Amino acid sequence: MATFIYAAEGWESCRIVGDGKRVQHFRYIHSTTPDAEHEPSTEEWEKFWLMVETVGAWSWEGNYDEGVRCGTPWRLEIRLGSRVMNCRGNLTSLGTLPPGFERLYFAMLVVCQS
Asked: Which domains does the chain have, with CATH numbers?
């Protein structure tokens, strides 16, 4: 199974969910109706999973908030077959993000809105 979920709340909240067939973007974390939805082609999914590999996301375990108390707390879970990655952090400062995080975040948005 191939899935991902990104959720952020705080100053800016949203949720992006990929279930292996479709990707949904919710403007607000607790929304029940997506603001955007897309069923990526096989090629689009392949590009997305290649991005996961390229940015090294499988090594992003743990907490990246470094004690930040204000901002936009987020969490990310990615599953592909038997591989699973969970991490969390805070978008207050780019210095607290795992390397390549921004590229993967935009890839999630692109695959949702293609």
From this structure: 2-113 (3.30.1560.10)
